[in-house]
Fold each of these.
Amino acid sequence: QVHLVESGGGLVQAGGSLRLSCAASGRTSSTYAMGWFRQAPGKERESVAAISGSGGTTRIADSVKGRFAISRDNAKNTVYLQMNSLQPEDTAVYYCASRTTSELTLWGWAYDYWGQGTQVTVSS
Protein backbone atom coordinates (compact mmCIF):
# COMPACT_ATOMS: atom_id res chain seq x y z
CA GLN A 1 0.00 0.00 0.00
CA VAL A 2 0.95 3.63 -0.48
CA HIS A 3 0.99 6.03 2.45
CA LEU A 4 0.57 9.73 1.75
CA VAL A 5 1.08 12.49 4.30
CA GLU A 6 0.25 16.10 3.50
CA SER A 7 1.82 19.05 5.26
CA GLY A 8 2.19 22.79 4.86
CA GLY A 9 -1.36 23.91 5.46
CA GLY A 10 -2.27 26.75 7.76
CA LEU A 11 -3.78 30.19 8.01
CA VAL A 12 -2.81 32.81 5.46
CA GLN A 13 -4.11 36.23 4.51
CA ALA A 14 -5.76 36.81 1.16
CA GLY A 15 -3.13 37.41 -1.47
CA GLY A 16 -0.59 35.28 0.35
CA SER A 17 1.07 32.03 -0.61
CA LEU A 18 1.50 28.53 0.76
CA ARG A 19 3.31 25.45 -0.44
CA LEU A 20 1.80 22.10 0.40
CA SER A 21 3.87 18.94 0.44
CA CYS A 22 2.80 15.34 0.05
CA ALA A 23 5.30 12.72 1.16
CA ALA A 24 4.77 9.24 -0.23
CA SER A 25 6.04 6.04 1.33
CA GLY A 26 5.39 2.33 1.25
CA ARG A 27 4.58 0.67 -2.04
CA THR A 28 4.91 3.86 -4.02
CA SER A 29 6.54 4.42 -7.36
CA SER A 30 7.90 7.37 -9.26
CA THR A 31 5.85 6.12 -12.20
CA TYR A 32 2.56 6.86 -10.43
CA ALA A 33 0.61 9.95 -11.38
CA MET A 34 -0.37 12.15 -8.45
CA GLY A 35 -3.10 14.68 -7.85
CA TRP A 36 -4.26 17.36 -5.46
CA PHE A 37 -7.92 17.75 -4.50
CA ARG A 38 -9.78 19.94 -2.05
CA GLN A 39 -13.06 19.94 -0.20
CA ALA A 40 -14.68 22.86 1.56
CA PRO A 41 -17.46 22.45 4.14
CA GLY A 42 -20.78 21.79 2.44
CA LYS A 43 -19.18 21.37 -0.97
CA GLU A 44 -18.18 18.41 -3.06
CA ARG A 45 -14.58 17.44 -3.48
CA GLU A 46 -13.02 19.17 -6.46
CA SER A 47 -9.93 18.58 -8.50
CA VAL A 48 -7.07 21.04 -8.18
CA ALA A 49 -4.10 19.69 -10.11
CA ALA A 50 -2.46 16.53 -11.37
CA ILE A 51 1.01 15.52 -12.46
CA SER A 52 2.32 12.58 -14.44
CA GLY A 53 4.66 10.00 -12.96
CA SER A 54 7.72 11.59 -14.52
CA GLY A 55 6.61 15.11 -13.65
CA GLY A 56 6.79 16.09 -17.29
CA THR A 57 3.09 16.79 -17.71
CA THR A 58 0.75 18.73 -15.44
CA ARG A 59 -2.90 19.66 -15.49
CA ILE A 60 -4.36 22.53 -13.49
CA ALA A 61 -8.04 23.10 -12.80
CA ASP A 62 -9.47 26.22 -14.43
CA SER A 63 -10.47 27.64 -11.07
CA VAL A 64 -6.86 27.90 -9.92
CA LYS A 65 -4.98 28.13 -13.20
CA GLY A 66 -2.41 30.89 -13.11
CA ARG A 67 -2.28 30.83 -9.32
CA PHE A 68 -1.45 27.23 -8.41
CA ALA A 69 1.27 24.93 -9.68
CA ILE A 70 2.03 21.27 -9.07
CA SER A 71 5.48 19.72 -9.10
CA ARG A 72 7.24 16.64 -7.82
CA ASP A 73 10.65 15.56 -6.65
CA ASN A 74 10.81 11.84 -7.23
CA ALA A 75 14.15 11.55 -5.45
CA LYS A 76 12.33 12.67 -2.30
CA ASN A 77 9.06 10.88 -3.09
CA THR A 78 7.33 14.20 -2.61
CA VAL A 79 4.72 16.14 -4.56
CA TYR A 80 4.16 19.85 -4.04
CA LEU A 81 1.32 22.27 -4.57
CA GLN A 82 2.44 25.89 -4.77
CA MET A 83 -0.49 28.19 -4.06
CA ASN A 84 -0.17 31.89 -4.82
CA SER A 85 -2.64 34.78 -4.67
CA LEU A 86 -4.80 32.82 -2.25
CA GLN A 87 -8.40 33.90 -1.84
CA PRO A 88 -10.99 33.05 0.83
CA GLU A 89 -12.73 30.71 -1.60
CA ASP A 90 -9.58 28.58 -1.58
CA THR A 91 -10.27 27.65 2.04
CA ALA A 92 -10.62 23.87 2.19
CA VAL A 93 -9.03 20.65 3.29
CA TYR A 94 -6.47 19.74 0.65
CA TYR A 95 -5.76 16.11 -0.15
CA CYS A 96 -3.09 14.47 -2.22
CA ALA A 97 -3.75 11.21 -3.99
CA SER A 98 -1.85 8.61 -5.96
CA ARG A 99 -2.80 6.54 -8.95
CA THR A 100 -1.21 3.19 -9.73
CA THR A 101 -0.64 4.19 -13.35
CA SER A 102 1.44 6.96 -14.87
CA GLU A 103 -1.27 8.85 -16.76
CA LEU A 104 -2.53 11.99 -15.06
CA THR A 105 -6.21 12.76 -14.69
CA LEU A 106 -8.42 15.14 -12.73
CA TRP A 107 -11.03 12.45 -12.08
CA GLY A 108 -10.93 11.58 -8.39
CA TRP A 109 -12.30 8.08 -8.91
CA ALA A 110 -9.14 7.18 -10.80
CA TYR A 111 -6.97 7.57 -7.71
CA ASP A 112 -6.26 4.60 -5.49
CA TYR A 113 -4.58 6.09 -2.41
CA TRP A 114 -5.37 9.24 -0.45
CA GLY A 115 -3.70 11.24 2.27
CA GLN A 116 -5.35 12.48 5.44
CA GLY A 117 -5.63 16.06 4.25
CA THR A 118 -4.25 19.37 5.44
CA GLN A 119 -6.34 22.43 6.27
CA VAL A 120 -5.82 25.65 4.35
CA THR A 121 -7.64 28.70 5.65
CA VAL A 122 -7.48 32.03 3.83
CA SER A 123 -8.64 35.10 5.70
CA SER A 124 -9.97 38.19 3.96
Amino acid sequence: QVQLVESGGGLVQAGGSLRLSCTASGSIPGSVFSISGMGWYRQAPGKQRDLVATILSGGLTNYADSVKGRFTISRDNAKNTVYLQMNGLKPEDTAVYYCAADLFVVTPGTYKRHWGQGTQVTVSS
Protein backbone atom coordinates (compact mmCIF):
# COMPACT_ATOMS: atom_id res chain seq x y z
CA GLN A 1 0.00 0.00 0.00
CA VAL A 2 3.06 2.26 0.16
CA GLN A 3 4.42 3.21 -3.22
CA LEU A 4 7.59 4.91 -4.36
CA VAL A 5 7.33 6.55 -7.76
CA GLU A 6 10.45 7.71 -9.58
CA SER A 7 10.77 10.14 -12.45
CA GLY A 8 13.45 12.03 -14.33
CA GLY A 9 15.37 9.28 -16.08
CA GLY A 10 16.25 9.48 -19.72
CA LEU A 11 18.95 9.56 -22.36
CA VAL A 12 21.75 12.10 -22.08
CA GLN A 13 25.20 12.55 -23.60
CA ALA A 14 28.35 12.30 -21.54
CA GLY A 15 28.86 15.43 -19.47
CA GLY A 16 25.15 16.14 -19.24
CA SER A 17 22.87 16.31 -16.24
CA LEU A 18 19.67 14.70 -15.01
CA ARG A 19 17.58 15.11 -11.89
CA LEU A 20 15.72 12.14 -10.48
CA SER A 21 12.77 12.46 -8.14
CA CYS A 22 11.04 9.89 -5.97
CA THR A 23 7.89 10.42 -3.95
CA ALA A 24 6.49 8.07 -1.33
CA SER A 25 2.74 7.84 -0.88
CA GLY A 26 0.11 5.55 0.57
CA SER A 27 -0.43 3.98 3.96
CA ILE A 28 0.05 0.80 5.92
CA PRO A 29 -3.20 -0.71 7.18
CA GLY A 30 -3.50 -0.77 10.95
CA SER A 31 -0.51 1.43 11.59
CA VAL A 32 1.26 4.67 10.91
CA PHE A 33 4.80 5.17 9.71
CA SER A 34 7.54 7.70 9.26
CA ILE A 35 10.28 7.70 6.65
CA SER A 36 13.76 7.51 8.10
CA GLY A 37 16.36 6.94 5.41
CA MET A 38 15.85 7.42 1.69
CA GLY A 39 18.28 6.67 -1.06
CA TRP A 40 19.13 5.70 -4.59
CA TYR A 41 20.57 2.46 -5.86
CA ARG A 42 21.49 1.46 -9.38
CA GLN A 43 21.98 -1.68 -11.36
CA ALA A 44 24.28 -1.30 -14.35
CA PRO A 45 24.53 -3.85 -17.15
CA GLY A 46 26.28 -6.96 -15.87
CA LYS A 47 26.57 -5.54 -12.35
CA GLN A 48 24.92 -5.98 -8.99
CA ARG A 49 22.52 -3.43 -7.57
CA ASP A 50 24.73 -0.98 -5.69
CA LEU A 51 24.17 1.96 -3.41
CA VAL A 52 24.51 5.37 -5.04
CA ALA A 53 23.56 7.75 -2.24
CA THR A 54 21.52 7.84 0.94
CA ILE A 55 20.11 10.58 3.12
CA LEU A 56 18.66 10.38 6.60
CA SER A 57 15.72 12.41 7.83
CA GLY A 58 18.11 14.77 9.60
CA GLY A 59 20.07 15.43 6.41
CA LEU A 60 23.13 13.21 6.87
CA THR A 61 24.27 11.96 3.45
CA ASN A 62 26.45 9.18 2.15
CA TYR A 63 27.73 8.62 -1.39
CA ALA A 64 29.40 5.90 -3.35
CA ASP A 65 32.98 6.87 -4.18
CA SER A 66 32.21 6.71 -7.90
CA VAL A 67 29.69 9.56 -7.71
CA LYS A 68 31.19 11.86 -5.08
CA GLY A 69 31.51 15.39 -6.39
CA ARG A 70 29.10 14.74 -9.25
CA PHE A 71 25.83 13.62 -7.66
CA THR A 72 23.88 15.34 -4.90
CA ILE A 73 21.08 13.76 -2.91
CA SER A 74 18.47 15.84 -1.13
CA ARG A 75 15.01 15.39 0.31
CA ASP A 76 11.87 17.28 1.16
CA ASN A 77 10.50 15.64 4.27
CA ALA A 78 7.19 17.48 4.06
CA LYS A 79 6.60 16.05 0.59
CA ASN A 80 8.12 12.62 1.30
CA THR A 81 10.32 13.17 -1.72
CA VAL A 82 13.97 12.44 -2.39
CA TYR A 83 15.99 13.86 -5.28
CA LEU A 84 19.20 12.92 -7.01
CA GLN A 85 20.92 15.65 -9.00
CA MET A 86 23.37 14.02 -11.39
CA ASN A 87 25.97 16.22 -13.06
CA GLY A 88 28.92 15.34 -15.23
CA LEU A 89 27.33 12.07 -16.25
CA LYS A 90 29.55 9.35 -17.64
CA PRO A 91 28.71 6.31 -19.77
CA GLU A 92 29.49 4.11 -16.77
CA ASP A 93 26.58 5.78 -14.94
CA THR A 94 24.20 4.00 -17.30
CA ALA A 95 21.88 1.87 -15.18
CA VAL A 96 18.40 1.43 -13.86
CA TYR A 97 18.13 3.69 -10.84
CA TYR A 98 15.94 2.56 -7.96
CA CYS A 99 14.56 4.68 -5.18
CA ALA A 100 14.51 3.15 -1.71
CA ALA A 101 12.90 4.25 1.53
CA ASP A 102 13.24 2.84 5.01
CA LEU A 103 9.95 3.19 6.84
CA PHE A 104 9.59 3.06 10.58
CA VAL A 105 6.26 1.36 11.21
CA VAL A 106 5.00 2.48 14.61
CA THR A 107 3.01 -0.72 15.07
CA PRO A 108 4.83 -3.07 15.67
CA GLY A 109 7.81 -0.71 15.88
CA THR A 110 9.92 -2.10 13.05
CA TYR A 111 11.67 -0.88 9.93
CA LYS A 112 10.60 -1.89 6.43
CA ARG A 113 12.41 -1.33 3.13
CA HIS A 114 10.34 -0.20 0.16
CA TRP A 115 11.55 0.06 -3.43
CA GLY A 116 10.46 2.04 -6.43
CA GLN A 117 9.96 0.51 -9.84
CA GLY A 118 13.17 1.95 -11.26
CA THR A 119 13.93 4.53 -13.91
CA GLN A 120 16.38 4.08 -16.78
CA VAL A 121 19.34 6.41 -17.09
CA THR A 122 21.38 6.04 -20.26
CA VAL A 123 24.53 8.07 -20.90
CA SER A 124 25.97 7.95 -24.40
CA SER A 125 29.58 8.60 -25.38
